[in-house]
Design goal:
Layout lengths: L1 H29 L4 E2 L6 H4 L1 E12 L2 E13 L8 E6 L14 E6 L5 E11 L8 E9 L19 E6 L14 E12 L2 E4 L11 E4 L2 E9 L5 E5 L4 H8 L1
């Protein structure tokens, strides 16, 4: 009797231990707050597209050529009409030196089609201390075909909820940069110099993507640690320069 009871207790203990890894795996998966952006998403989410920037830099004494992959947000024209300006991050353009090679912008249209255009940088913060850049499209995205975002220069208070969107290059939900994803439930947690610190989850490739509050674009994703710490440049820092171009 005692031996049978001991065996049952041992089996119960083994069963409990065997469940621990499964619970741990479930918990790790639950930490993934991002969602894929589908064709029926709000237009302000569909305003985020992909940039392919021809880049050349020296590495170990040899010149390497490759496409820098970043994100950018198509801005809504203030008076309607075609959309011709994309907001992104300066560091995405840092090694773009061969101006004969075109920057490419790709956006999923409101009907699910792929919209493509060439882009050229027309304004920027000039460095990581002001990590934003404005690009002009040629040709523009025709009115009504692509989602656009309204730029909002108001300060977002600590604790306020954000949505941060971009083409993260992680092999999971981001599909190596092929899938637009967003973190719908992150928050502003403080400041990082003149920029805003958040607990939003994003990976390399989402740089230049949008930080949205109430459906309006409040900043450009600059940098992060891919573990739930992301920093964006507030729109207030570049709103005057961008507004001059939009007009």
């Amino acid at each position: 009797m005692v031996q049978r009871l001991a065996r049952r207790l041992l089996l119960a203990l083994v069963s409990i231990v065997a469940m621990v890894p499964a619970l741990a795996d479930h918990g790790a998966g639950a930490a993934e707050r991002r969602l894929p952006v589908a064709d029926d998403a709000p237009p302000w989410l569909l305003a985020v597209g992909r940039l392919a920037i021809p880049t050349s830099r020296l590495e170990a004494g040899r010149r390497r050529h490759y496409d820098e992959r970043c994100s950018g947000t198509l801005l809504a024209p203030p008076d309607g009409g075609d959309a011709q300006f994309v907001l992104s991050a300066w560091h995405c353009l840092e090694y773009y030196t061969d101006l004969s090679r075109a920057i490419r912008f790709e956006l999923t249209g409101l009907a699910g089609e792929v919209l493509e255009s060439r882009a050229r940088a027309v304004a920027s913060g000039g460095g990581m201390a002001a990590d934003w850049a404005l690009l002009e499209l040629n040709p523009p995205i025709p009115a009504g075909l692509g989602g656009t975002a309204e730029l909002d220069g108001r300060t977002v208070a600590a604790g306020a909820r954000l949505a941060m969107a971009g083409f993260s290059g992680d092999p999971g939900l981001g599909a190596g940069g092929a899938q637009l994803t967003y973190d719908p439930a992150c928050r502003v947690t403080g400041t990082s110099g003149a920029d805003r610190l958040t607990d939003c989850l994003a990976y390399k490739g989402a740089s230049g993507g949008g930080a949205f509050h109430g459906g309006r674009l409040v900043g450009v994703l600059s940098r992060g640690d891919s573990r739930g710490r992301s920093i964006y440049v507030p729109a207030a820092r570049f709103l005057p320069a961008v507004s001059r171009r939009l007009r």
